[in-house]
Amino acid sequence: MGLFGRKKSVEDQPDPYLDLLTIRDADRLRALTRTVLAENGFEAQVLGDHLALADGRTLGLDNLVRKVRAADGEEWDRIVRSHLAALLRPSEDPTGDDLLTRIVARLLDVSVGSGDPRLTFDYASPWQPGVAEILVVDHPDHVSMLGDGSVRDLAPLGPWYDRARRNLFRELTETAEVRVETVEHDGHRFQCALSESVFTASGALLLPELLPRWVPGIDVSGGVLFAVPFRNQLAFAACSSAEAALGGLMLLPVFAANGYSDGVGPVSPNVYYWRDGTVTQISSIADDALNVTPPPELLEIINGE
User: Fold this and answer.
1) Which of 293, 275, 277 is nearest to 238 (CA)?
2) How many alpha carbons fall within 13 Å on the CB side of residue 22?
3) 0.85 cut: is pTM over it?
4) Cβ atoms of 206 and 165 closer than 8 Å
5) What residue ranges of the chain have pLDDT lower than 50?
6) Where are the domains of the chain?
7) Alpha carbon of residue 178 to chain centroid
């Protein structure tokens, strides 16, 4: 797991709208999406960073960019077709008992949103600045977000959120194959939970319940530093000693910022500190500068007080 010549032609410079790709690759991606949409009967205008369909829908290209960026060029056609098929597939959300088993809580970067401006989440509980806890439906082959219109008939939402969190716990302890790896750099270390489940990062909602299942014997009495860069990753450092706390504090902010930029389904570039049920944001990025402000109780652990 990663942590951390010649003069380029204009086409090899970062694209102004899709800056994870070069201008050449971004233009190729836009052309490919236009072709695939046309083949499936969708009239669309492919703009700088999104697709504007004739029926009024808007589809962001952010997640698609991250998928193709990590793939071989020969795989782009298959990836684009699969991605657009999932986005455009008509589906009906389940009801009744079926909905009880499929509704799941998920963390969403509200600064990015759903890619569709008509899908709003005013009902969602703010988790941390820029990140909200929304309700989604986990279909066998895709996940659909429940917007304000969809949850109107579910009120009151409290029991649904309780059920959604229980289903999230089941997903990350019984269904998903979660593996925990140790990341080391410059003598410091932290741990990272990864899986193919798009709900892995949302496990941050259930840290005290999940971490003992993933890491038997883990000591969370001193709190936990953690990050949720993108949907398939939850990085953490239990602050059980000065060394463990310092390792998390030194490594996680850069790790989170890099993962948020590169991963599919970004959630947050920031690092948080959980202790006794309270979550505090301790890092932020402003004007391309990474700022870290540890709370007093974390400094006490690091200083051995």
Assistant:
1) 275
2) 8
3) no
4) yes
5) 1-2, 5-7
6) 10-88, 96-175, 179-302
7) 16
